Amino acid sequence: MSECQLCTSTDGVSSHSIAGVADCTINICTTCQSEIAKSDNLDVHHWRCLNDSMWTPEEPVQIMAWRMLTRLSAQGEGWAQDLLDTLYLEDDVLTKAQSEEQGADTEDDFALKHVDSNGAVLEAGDSVVLIKDLNVKGAGFTAKRGTAVRNISLDPTNEEHIEGRVNGQQIVILTKFVKKM
Predict the structure, then answer these.
(1) SS3 for 96-165, per residue?
(2) Domain membership of residue 161 as a residue range
(3) Global pTM value
(4) What's the CA gap between 65 and 76, in Å, rounded?
(5) Which are the contacts of 43, defined by CB distance < 8 A and separation ≥ 6?
(6) In this predicted model, what pLDDT tens digit does every residue of 17-31 receive, in sequence order?
(7) Chain segment 79-111, per-residue pLDDT in tens
(8) Is 25 contained in some domain?
(9) Do residues 29 and 4 touch, judged by C-beta distance below 8 A?
């Protein structure tokens, strides 16, 4: 009987192609497969199995272990970051794991997400309303609460910053002070 190469479960094991890496497959269970497909709220306790499976000499398992530890670490799991810090991958395997992260279907999960004060995702071109009076540094005016800012642009390096025109002037606004219209 076949077992999952990540968690050793024997329930519903099937071959899974690793996105972004040609001719690279791994045998995983249905639980691991559904967890890999999730964008957030990973079952942290399930992935503790990576403590053992990450040491395998098999390249596909190393790639998936690196990928999942990276996702868990990004969610604030300190133990995952500790494992990631101890995981050694050959340069070519690490390159494949990183390229997989950038080219996988879950690319949006790792991109910056600009969210307003209510948690709504903001996109370039959206319109927002200021929820607080804001002193605009260097411009000498106060942007009043309730002011509509149309056709915003997103800062590609900081998820807390958006840009838009207020009183005819392009300004940077913190996302925590706006709500999507």
Answers:
(1) HHHHHHHHCCCHHHHCCCCECCCCCECCCCCCEEECCCEEECCCCEEECCCCEECCCEECCCCCCEEEEE
(2) 128-180
(3) 0.55
(4) 17
(5) 31, 35
(6) 887 787 788 999 989
(7) 999 999 999 989 888 888 887 544 444 444 445
(8) yes
(9) yes
